[in-house]
Amino acid sequence: MRLCIIEIFMLSLYSCFIKKYKDMAVNYVVVPKGNPADPNAPKKFYAQAISSGGAETEDKFHLSLIKNPKVAFRPGVDLKEMLATLKYEKAK
Question: pTM for the complete prediction?
Answer without folding.
Answer: 0.50
